[in-house]
Write a structure and sequence with these properties.
Keywords: Plasmid, Transferase. By secondary structure, the chain is an alpha/beta fold. Helix content is 38%, strand content 16%. The protein has 4 domains: 210 residues, Spore Coat Polysaccharide Biosynthesis Protein SpsA, Chain A (Alpha-Beta Complex); 92 residues, no CATH class; 187 residues, Rossmann fold (3-Layer(aba) Sandwich), CATH 3.40.50; 161 residues, Rossmann fold (3-Layer(aba) Sandwich), CATH 3.40.50. The longest helix has 30 residues.
């Protein structure tokens, strides 16, 4: 029986001309596709996609998700649709929206699969620019890709480009669902390639079968690694280097374990037979303690074959693997190991000869300038002072025009929580309104600029993209970069107390025109600390010269109550949380079909103000008081991963950790009761999102904060174990949340984020125009 081919094509704000060119190239295949599955990832391009496919004579099916999808989620949704009634002779091809397939793209792939028996085939690609002009005849030569890296080699660097691949249906069946990730750290083509390499193998058509269009809107883009072989340039082997290498090693290790677990599942549920998958190449990444030596040998082999960059990657992995074992030993020995050894030796010497060895006796007439071996090496002062307050980069005044510098702790998607997202969105809103914006990471080095850039720009609205906002945004790492391009008229936005000190010092030391910065205040940060240096420094940040921007009137009023007059200054701004209530309130709650009711706890043990210990105490009291068993209630924790906690009658709080953004609304809809504490004036998002999803939620009040005024679905109480437990008992017996209770008006907490950004943009523009 001849193969039939189904094409999965993700559509996200396409260039109409490029998209039409691609659609026509699909229709012109010598082996035409059976059907094209158009995933409308932007939720707005459906009519255009359907019209172009129809005009080209292609049979198509629209896959229309409930929310915007990134590239990986879009292909996951399209693959699921394409596999619904697929048989073993069905092949799946991945397609991008703005490339160009050569007429034999599918036919050549089918021929290669039939000849080799492989599970996947991919090809080289020709690089073209936005107009179709050829940049390079071979992506493989342009990026110096290995043609046959093998299963383990794919973990060092993926050599498969998604829009060139064609795979058997069984690869897709095993691939679903894709391993979870926060943001986009790996793409579907790598996951498909790993599965195929472990099964029937991956083969290459060593000539271009597609034109890859390289332009400013590429999700990934091709990277020039051509030229003659040269030794890789080594960076300083410091903590920043280790962190960067660790991020890549972590992804490789994660994917190795994900593949290993997926193959076990596939054998268990009958998708594969025992022994069909070959996973031995993954052993260096699967072993608990060993593996670094094998990776080091890989590095030597790659270097011998003149793959300098790949050798550097493998060598970096081996260093991280060794560092992991060293860290494990240090943790096992404990931070007090030296003190413990001293105590042991004291007891040891008490047995014989009865006293410890004496310190060396030095002559009294010794040179006073000579080092004293009895003295410890002096510690640098930076060890005891908070270096976050100090700029770690120097402005380089080379920028053509002024920008708004948004000082942000991290730009790594996995480290971004709601507060940082708010700061990002303010910067993006300013870019939409015509201001140049420079995001500068102040605390943590950027692990991968491409990942961070994609994460930031994907948060742009369609209107912002149309307004050219993407071209006005730049990302810089203030941790690893010694300089940042700047302009004397730059403006600053601080997003935490230490970055307020950084902004103030940059302005004073380097002679910026504008001596006042904007300060995003999202909580009363002195209260994060015991009385001491950090408390004092956070308090001192409120005495600098700035325009306050408050995340809610609640925080503004609390700051005012502490005696700070700036809280009610004429130019002070306050906005309500940037929560899309409709994203949660519009969802349909599923029928749990007699399953135990589910309680969702926002659990972040490492964050004191989230009152994790109080929440656990309250859950234990609540389940005990009502004599609830696992047949009555399921307790899950989301936020930060922690170990399981036994509470009462075999009830266990099980942690799911951080959920993917796309999965979060569906998770809340499937929960009945919520518990989210925040011992500060900041309202926090989870209680509001839970209530909008139709859950009864218990939280605490603090100062002017009482979230029960937003919805009867929210029960606000004292932040003590007994009080929270009593509120949970009341919530347990209350009737289901009504649609009216799910409609929450955030207006009482301040301006809408858009209105606030509009006012802030006008104020910043006036400052810039005053100097022009």
């Amino acid at each position: 029986m001849p193969f039939s081919v189904r094409v999965v094509l993700a559509v996200y704000r396409p260039d109409p001309d490029h998209f039409e060119t691609q659609i026509r190239s699909l229709a012109a295949q010598t082996h035409p596709p059976e059907r094209v599955y158009l995933v409308i990832a932007d939720r707005s391009s459906g009519p255009l996609a359907e019209r172009l496919a129809g005009a080209a004579g292609l049979a198509c099916a629209l896959v229309e998700p409930d929310s915007d999808l990134d590239a990986v989620r879009a292909f996951e949704a399209g693959l699921a649709a394409a596999l619904e009634d697929a048989d073993d002779d069905t092949l799946i091809a991945a397609c991008d929206q703005d490339d160009l397939w050569h007429p034999d793209r599918l036919a050549a792939g089918i021929e290669a699969l039939e000849k080799t028996g492989a599970d996947m085939v991919h090809s080289d690609a020709r690089l073209v620019d936005g107009t179709g002009a050829v940049i390079h005849e071979s992506m493989f030569r342009f990026e110096r890709r290995r043609k046959d890296p093998g299963l383990r080699g794919l973990l060092y660097r993926n050599n498969i480009t998604g829009m060139t691949l064609l795979m058997r249906a069984r690869v897709g069946r095993i691939a679903l669902p894709f391993p979870a990730q926060s943001g986009v750290h790996f793409y579907h083509d790598l996951w498909f390639g790993l599965i195929a390499a472990a099964l029937g193998g991956v083969t290459l058509v060593d000539r271009p079968l597609v034109d890859y269009r390289q332009h400013g809107g590429n999700v990934v883009g091709a990277v020039d690694r051509g030229g003659r072989w040269r030794l890789p340039r080594w960076r300083k082997l410091d903590e920043v280097w280790m962190r960067r290498e660790a991020a890549s090693y972590a992804l490789a290790r994660y994917l190795a374990h994900a593949l290993y677990h997926r193959m076990i599942e596939a054998v268990a549920d009958g998708r594969l037979k025992e022994g069909q998958a070959t996973l031995s190449p993954l052993r260096p990444f699967l072993r608990r303690y060993r593996g670094g030596g094998r990776i080091f040998l890989d590095a030597l082999g790659l270097a011998a074959r003149l793959h300098g960059q790949l050798a550097r990657i493998a060598l970096g992995f081996s260093v991280v693997a060794l560092g992991r074992n060293v860290w494990i030993l240090r943790e096992a020995l404990g931070p007090g190991r030296n003190e413990a050894l001293d105590r042991f030796d004291t007891r040891l010497y008490s047995l014989s000869p009865g006293m410890p060895p004496a310190a060396p006796n030095l002559p009294e007439d010794r040179d006073p300038g000579a080092p004293d071996p009895r003295e410890q090496e002096p510690a640098p002062f930076q060890l005891y002072t908070d270096q976050r307050k100090e700029p770690s980069w120097t402005p380089e005044f080379t920028a053509d025009g002024p920008a708004v510098n948004v000082l942000i702790p991290t730009l790594n998607p996995t480290e971004i929580f709601a507060g940082i997202v708010t700061a990002l969105d303010i910067g993006l809103g300013l870019a939409e309104r015509g201001l140049n914006v420079r995001f500068i990471a102040t605390d943590l080095p950027v692990s991968a600029f491409s990942t961070s850039r994609a994460f930031v720009k994907r948060r742009l609205t369609e209107q912002a993209v149309a307004a050219g906002a993407a071209d006005r945004i730049e990302l810089y790492c203030g941790v690893t970069g010694s300089t940042v391009p700047s302009h004397r008229d730059d403006l600053f936005i601080a997003t935490a107390w230490w970055s307020a000190h950084v902004a103030d010092k940059l302005i004073r030391r380097h002679g910026y025109t504008h001596t006042r910065f904007s300060y995003l205040i999202q909580d009363f940060e002195p209260n994060f600390y015991a009385w001491g240096p950090e408390f004092a420094d956070a308090w001192a940040s409120y005495e600098l010269d700035f325009r306050p921007v408050f995340n809610t009137t609640l925080i503004r009023d609390y700051v005012a109550a502490q005696g700070f007059g700036f809280a009610h200054a004429p130019d002070a701004l306050a906005f309500h949380p940037a929560i899309d209530i409709s994203r949660y309130a519009a969802g349909t709650r599923p029928d749990r079909g007699g399953k135990p009711r589910r309680l969702a706890l926002y659990g972040r043990p490492e964050v004191p103000r989230n009152m994790y210990a109080t929440a656990i105490e309250a859950v234990a009291r609540f389940t005990n008081s009502l004599d609830l068993t696992p047949d009555d209630i399921e307790i899950v924790s989301v936020g930060l991963r922690h170990g399981p906690v036994a509470v009462y009658e075999k009830n266990v709080v099980r942690s799911l950790g951080k959920l993917a953004w796309e999965d979060y609304p569906g998770f809340l809809l499937d929960c009945d009761l919520g518990l989210s504490l925040m011992y500060s004036p900041h309202p926090s998002h989870p209680p509001i999102e839970m209530a909008a999803s139709g859950m009864r939620v218990v939280t605490n009040h603090f100062g002017p904060k009482d979230l029960s005024t937003l919805s009867p679905a929210i029960l606000s109480t004292e932040a003590t174990g007994p009080a929270v437990a009593e509120a949970l008992e009341r919530a347990w017996t209350m009737p289901p949340v009504t649609p009216a209770e799910r409609r929450i008006d955030l207006g009482q907490l301040g301006l809408s984020p858009d209105a606030m950004v509009e006012q802030l943009a006008r104020a910043l523009r006036r400052e810039l125009e005053a100097e022009s």
